[in-house]
Sequence to fold (241 residues):
Amino acid sequence: MPIQSVGAYIPGGRYPLTASAHMTIVTAKAAGVPRVVACTPPIQGEIPAATVAAMHLAGADEIYILGGVQAIAAMSIGTETVAPVDMLAGPGNAYVAEAKRQLFGEVGIDLFAGPTEILIVADDDADPFVVAVDLLSQAEHGPDSPAALVTTSERVAGEVQRHIDEILPACRPATSPARPGGTTARSSWSMTSKRPTALPTASPTSTSRSSPRTLVKRWTRCTPTAPCSLVKEPASPTATR
Fold:
């Protein structure tokens, strides 16, 4: 029994996230929803052509260039030009999540989505390239998306680090949107510079968090009979805590 009208929020703002159109709009149309309203924010004041094309090809019946809490409110409560929907679906930032929380009851929602995160537990049989790609594919969701690796193999940890250093430069956007005041927004890929367990972590004295190559390698070692220790490489008597 398909819902009669669904609002699909397609996040954007910094970069086009075309896959979100497929996850929400296609799902609703495949279920037989007769009216799917889709909203996505402009990117630096411009219409996100790739996202709009994805929304159209996914089967959206109405498309609005509107983002954030305004889009959630428009689809939930309605405006002079947007008729309200029965249910909201789609991810977004903290403001979008809070808007969905406050409007729950006025309209149905899919879920309260938090930041994307990943924790990989690997032994010596793990494929370091696959592990590296899995970490990066989740870290790219945003600066609040942690990616962690816990491994019993120093070899795997080292090879994962090497793959990340090789893959990361090619994954950076060609341009980064400017922040107010003229500063450049840090690429969301830089989340990987927050090194997780068994991967290098940032040096306490480092002033850069955007380049993995500026980091001092540290390893967490654990044994069944001893607590975990943080050892700087090369090992130093003062580096263990």
User: Anything to note?
Assistant: The chain has a mean pLDDT of 75. The first helix runs from residue 19 to 30.
